[in-house]
Amino acid sequence: MSGDDEGPVAADALDRVTWALRRAELAVQALKEQRLRSLGMAAAHYSLLISVHAEPGLTGAELARRLNVTPQAVASLVARLEDRGRLERRPHPRHRHVQELHLTDAGRDALRAADAVIAEIEQQITEKLGPEDTDRLTVLLGQAADAVRES
Questions:
Q1: Strand intervals (E) in the chain
Q2: pLDDT tens readout for residues 92-131
Q3: What is the b/e burial string over 47-83, where b = at least 16 CB atoms within 10 angstroms of the residue's CB?
Q4: Residue 90, beta-bridge partner list
Q5: Cα–Cα distance for residue pair 106/49, rounded to 1 Å
Q6: Which domains does the chain have, with CATH numbers?
């Protein structure tokens, strides 16, 4: 091999928009984990709770698809949240082997506290960007998601 062979990636690989998206995602995720820890919660717990809040009665399989995780990961999270009294399973009205997920009062309280933490992170970002750039970023991210979905 000679010294002028191409490397394993293009020279601009770390300047790509997809890498910028990933860096931002990792930074936000790390901050969520850090700040939610004081509530005894992980970002995955928040994602699950807010999903069940938005669509009460979701099944574990539906949640797994929405959160892009395995059914086993959802089952583990559900068991943990159920043990903490934040989530309850109820029989599905039509399918006897399926259980729906619902927040308990403790789950709503936990979600409320966690959402306040997430709102603080959101505020930290939007204050840094300002209203115009925040709006522009929101539109651009939506367009990026649409572009990927269309392919």
A1: 87-91, 99-103
A2: 888 788 899 999 999 999 999 999 999 999 999 999 999 9
A3: bbbebbeeeeebbbebbbeeeebeeebbeebbeebee
A4: 100
A5: 11
A6: 16-141 (1.10.10.10)
pLDDT at 11: 86
Question: pLDDT tens-digit profile of 49-76?
Answer: 999 999 999 999 999 999 999 999 999 9
Per the listing, tokens 């991210």 go with 141
Tokens linked to 96: 């006897």
Q: Give the H/E segment covering residue 28.
A: helix 17-37
CA distances from 17 to 9, 39, 130, 150, 151 (A): 15, 33, 21, 17, 17
Amino acid in the structure at residue 30: A
